[in-house]
Amino acid sequence: MRNYFFFCPYKTAGKSICEHFNISNIHTLVKDIYYPNLKNFIRLQAIDITKYYYRIIFRKKTKLSIPAKKNRNIHVGTVRNPYARSVSWFLDVKRNKFHQSYHNFHKDMKFKDFLLSNKNSTGFRTQKSYFMDWNNKYRLDYLIRYEKINSDLKNFIGSEKIYLEKFDYELNYKNKNPFKYNYKDYLCNISIDTINKLQNEDFSFFGYNKLT
Description:
Blueprint: E1 2-7, H1 14-20, H2 38-43, H3 46-58, E2 63-66, E3 72-79, H4 82-94, H5 97-100, H6 111-117, E4 142-145, H7 149-159, H8 161-164, H9 189-198, H10 200-206
Parallel strand pairs: 1-3, 3-4
Antiparallel strand pairs: 1-2
Helix pairs in contact: 6-9
């Protein structure tokens, strides 16, 4: 079997991509599909162990298996400009009562205040952390950037066309916000500085330019 695992941080078009391949998007991490060795396991906090086993129960939902002579796991990840992703997460929480239930939030809250009050939110977790294994090794075979989603998806499917020939090269479904906005309109010096610090490794590792 050739197994394709998709690692899609919040607000990086993961739902669109996973639906394209007829699988579910549950924001899986690379760590979720591999067992930690004894050394890794000893270092885990109780909450990490709980999350690990919770995710491992559902991991098959994010696996696309294609018959092949040799068994191999292929890792595919999605990323997005950290500023745009952070603002998109804020707007998602703003219109989603479930997300509001586990955030410090009120309806008149500005993006800066939401960001400062919810620094540990899953929506602000670094994207790189989704793609690292238990030994802190980067494990992606293909990276799809939100800003080049159609061309990157085409390159991915084209490179795997022997196995993925039944899938279209362009997304049939796009999970877009119900309104248009410019993420830069939500930024200020404080929010920019906060995102720069919280997601510093995403800027440097994926080549996104920082605002100052």
